[in-house]
Write a structure and sequence with these properties.
It is a single chain. It is built from nine helices and nine strands. It is globular. Strand 6, helix 6 and strand 7 form a beta-alpha-beta unit. Helix 4 runs parallel beside helix 5 and helix 7 runs parallel beside helix 9. The strands form two sheets. A seven-stranded parallel beta sheet has the order 2-3-1-4-5-6-7, sandwiched between helices. The chain has one domain: 3-Layer(aba) Sandwich (Rossmann fold). It is of the alpha/beta class.
Length: about 290
């Protein structure tokens, strides 16, 4: 599958399917948990929030959450990328199921996202995947969101966020946070998609990953393709989870450094480099080997 080859994931996925103790927090729409390619003991809801399952299969929220879940957690051997099927997926919906699938993606308030981040971290997540279209950010909402992202950094929980699809150059309360890894989408040739947002903070700390015509899971039990930075972000999240599965003693900062190859502070372009999971794996092998030697 070209997206896995382009992201350097093929060999890493051959080494590991992930570990259940590596928990990925999916903060998105609800998921069609009864999909035959998703069923399994390692798909869970964040306890205390309510159901993670879709109630309206035709909603945009359900469709979006299910497709992102398919990239991360589908069974191997199907059409979906299925990067980390043996990791634990913690589903924490933030989008209401009131928008039809053919309409624009529903949004959430910054306060709702902040609460979801904290709850998912408290549920044991080690990596968060955010694909959040937000309502206009108030000073109070931005403060809550910043505090939640600080909470993630304090607890060593990595945060991956879709950079957005408005064809703008700039930053948001999410992408400018120093702990967040923003993700830009690229096509099969490795070129950024025209709609991907770019910016100084995105270029300095972010990554680019496949985000055009990505096959995943549909809510009717079949397969469906999607694109944009929401499709690209789970490739980075899945790579993080596999690396942590292979190097369970690594710190969050080690995983982050391996993905960015330690060059984040020296980047000046608004366009980030492309994810190369195999190079990150080799980087961690050297890093952890050197640490053991001392």
């Amino acid at each position: 599958m070209w997206p896995l080859e382009l992201a350097g994931l093929t060999r890493l996925m051959a080494r590991t399917r992930g570990r259940p103790e590596v928990k990925i927090g999916l903060i998105d729409g609800p998921v069609m948990t009864t999909h035959p390619e998703l069923s399994g003991p390692n798909l869970r809801e964040v306890r205390g929030h309510g159901t993670a399952a879709c109630t309206i299969s035709s909603s945009a929220a359900c469709g979006h959450g299910t497709m992102v879940a398919g990239v991360l957690h589908a069974k191997r051997g199907g059409q979906a990328p299925a990067i980390c099927p043996d990791c634990t997926l913690l589903v924490r919906p933030i989008f209401p199921e009131t928008t039809a699938s053919h309409q624009i993606m529903p949004s959430a308030t910054p306060e709702a996202l902040a609460n979801a981040i904290v709850e998912t971290i408290d549920a044991g997540a080690r990596v968060l995947n955010l694909s959040a279209a937000l309502t206009p950010v108030t000073a109070h909402g931005e403060r809550m969101l910043t505090e939640a992202l600080n909470y993630a950094a304090h607890h060593g929980v990595l945060v991956v966020a879709a950079a957005g699809n408005q064809s703008t150059v700039g930053s948001t309360a999410i992408t400018r946070h120093p702990w967040v890894i923003p993700v830009v989408a690229c096509d099969s040739q490795g070129r950024p998609t025209p709609e991907s947002n770019l910016g100084n903070s995105i270029g300095r700390r972010g990554l680019m990953a496949p985000g055009e015509n990505i096959p995943s899971l549909g809510t009717d039990g079949s397969y469906r393709s999607f694109g944009g930075t929401s499709a690209a972000a789970p490739f980075v999240t899945g790579a993080m989870a596999l690396l942590w599965s292979e190097f369970p003693q690594a710190r969050a900062a080690d995983i982050q450094q391996a993905l960015t190859q330690g060059r984040s502070g020296r980047r000046t372009s608004v366009l980030p480099p492309r994810l190369n999971a195999e190079r990150s794996y080799q980087f961690l092998r050297v890093m952890t080997g050197e640490r053991r030697a001392f």
